[in-house]
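Archive transcription. Copying these from loose printouts into the bound notebook so they stop getting lost. Printout 1 of 2:
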Amino acid sequence: VQLVESGGGSVQAGGSLKLSCAASGNTYSTYFMAWFRQAPGKEREKVAAIDDNGWTDYTDSMKGRFTISQDKAKNTLYLQMNSLKPEDTAMYYCAAKVPRWASDYQYWGQGTQVTVSS
């Protein structure tokens, strides 16, 4: 499975960005996909996850501001980010756990940078 993120960029606080993650290669009918982020000097943290049934989960600090979604026909994962804050500045990564019972996310994209200025 190959994952390629896009959509990152620079935005002012309060603005919005929509990240995309295109998946290709061996696809599975059952999976988890997620967005993670890592800021300089900080540990990587999960932002949101979605499974093949459309179940979603968010880290508390992102609830209400970020929305994870998918387009199965396009094999694409999205992250809509609204009301962005400077502390959202990080490299954002798309990851996949296939099949869903795999022990961890074993496929990762190269990341897309998000920079939020105050």
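Printout 2 of 2:
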Amino acid sequence: QVQLVESGGGLVQAGGSLRLSCATSGFTFSRSAMRWYRQAPGKERELLVAIIASTGDTTNYADSVKGRFTISRDNAKKMVYLQMDSLKPEDTAVYYCYAIDYSTFPARNYWGQGTQVTVSS
């Protein structure tokens, strides 16, 4: 059974930091690209950052979080993280972990259930 379980969300003041974690199981993590998305109320889900499996190279897709959010992974623990610094009220959203498992053909995609992040001004 595939599971992606996010944790680490909560309420934080503007300027603060949070570290989100995503614990995974049930698929080939070591061959999966991992991403973090977020969805604010009334808005579409937004791709933030991604990290590939082989080299750990990262890509930032959202200008709004460049220089503030960092994705990382631990293949041994099958975990992915999102370090969020200098948080702003506009970062308030539900944050989702997402996996693309390339060990199968075609690749399979999985979502976590999300964790709420609320940034107060």
